[in-house]
Specification:
CATH class of the largest domain: Alpha Beta
Pfam families: LacI, Peripla_BP_3
Strand order of the largest sheet: 2-1-3-4-5-11
Strand content: 15-25%
InterPro entries: HTH_LacI, LacI/GalR-like_sensor, Lambda_DNA-bd_dom_sf, Peripla_BP_I
Protein name: DNA-binding LacI/PurR family transcriptional regulator
CATH superfamily of the largest domain: Response regulator
GO molecular function: DNA-binding transcription factor activity; transcription cis-regulatory region binding
CATH topology of the largest domain: Rossmann fold
Distance between the termini: 70 Å
Number of helices: 14
Number of domains: 3
CATH architecture of the largest domain: 3-Layer(aba) Sandwich
Keywords: DNA-binding, Transcription, Transcription regulation
């Protein structure tokens, strides 16, 4: 036996109003008295009426969906680095609180970018853009078309877009200053990719602290992964065998550095101190537990959504938002 879904006409009849009035109440429009609104809502509850999403979208010109576009391969988003999952968690929680739907999209190919452009031009109210590299075409492509865009992290190039970032420069500087105050003399860094704002800004923070202490900057580069940190650490040890401290621009690179130090017989922190950046869960269980700069990844996701909601309500932010970081002391420094 087929059970027919309640219709908007039935809601209107039960509430004693016109279909147009019932539609305004269901779609959150104004111009309806409190008494009529309550009658329509009571009818909706009584009948178990559920609005048709497609029809509602035609009336309101809203989809109540927000896309989170991560400019990385899916394997990276769901890989070892929990940063992406933490941001997704924050985005999802804030959207759920606002009765909006999350659409998660990942891409790192030209075909994927075209798919994102086509989809987001029609099916979402806004786009949250995360982890772009360099002059990513998504910056300009999404910035020119329909829905508004909020970036997670300061865009390095492209059009001026709203963004929420963390204090990468200040956090890195704080971590290196701690090493300097602890008496470390030859402090090297494993920097992140220089086509990403986090990699650029954390290297700036390191250089600022080193220059203020009248030291020489010694830099190797990784890609935020554990393996790249281990390779960079071996390279630094070969070039600077007297180094006594390392600032790594991500916890995964710091954990890779710890492995390289163990393999070469260096004691941490006795011979070499190590400071990372992120404060991922693995940092607490590293051997030894990792001193690191904590960034609020779930809050980054929440604040991206809040900024988007303000834009959708016609109240765009006057300036970007930068979230604070803090140094978490453990056993490696």
């Amino acid at each position: 036996m087929v059970t027919l879904r309640p219709t908007l006409e039935q809601v209107a009849k039960l509430a004693g109003v016109s279909r147009a009035t019932a539609s305004r109440v269901v779609n959150g429009a104004g111009g309806v008295s409190a008494g009529v609104r309550e009658a329509v809502r009571a009818a909706v509850d009584s009948l178990g009426y559920v609005p048709n999403p497609a029809a509602r979208s035609l009336v309101t010109r809203r989809t109540d969906s927000i896309a989170l576009v991560v400019s990385e391969p899916t394997s990276q988003v769901f890989g070892d680095d929990p940063f992406f999952i933490d941001v997704v968690r924050g985005v999802s929680a804030e959207l759920e609180a606002g009765d909006r739907q999350l659409v998660l999209m990942t891409t790192d190919t030209p075909a994927g970018r075209e798919r994102v452009k086509r989809f987001t031009s029609v099916h979402v109210d806004g786009v949250l853009l995360l982890s772009c590299h360099g002059n990513d075409p998504l910056y300009s492509a999404l910035g020119k078309q329909g829905p508004p865009v909020v970036c997670g992290g300061r865009p390095l190039y492209g059009p001026s877009l709203a963004y929420v970032d963390v204090d990468n420069v200040g956090g890195a500087r704080q971590g290196v200053e701690y090493l300097i105050k602890s008496g470390r003399r030859r402090i090297v860094t494993i920097a992140g990719p220089q086509d990403m704002n986090a990699g650029v800004d954390r290297l700036i923070g390191y250089r600022e602290a080193i220059a203020a202490a009248d030291r020489r900057a010694i830099v190797a580069y990784g890609d935020f992964s554990r393996d790249s940190g281990e390779r960079a650490m071996h390279s630094l040890l070969a070039d600077e065998p007297e180094l006594d401290a390392v600032f790594a621009a991500s916890d995964l690179m710091a954990i890779g550095a710890l492995a390289a130090l163990r393999n070469t017989g260096r004691r941490v922190p006795d011979d070499v101190a190590v400071v990372g950046f992120d404060d991922i869960e693995q940092a607490r269980y590293a051997e030894p537990p990792l001193t690191t700069v904590q960034q609020p990844s779930p809050l980054l996701g929440r604040e991206m959504v809040r900024m988007m909601q303000r834009i959708l309500c016609g109240d765009p932010p006057d300036s970007p938002m930068t979230l604070p970081t803090q140094l978490v002391l453990r056993s490696t420094a």
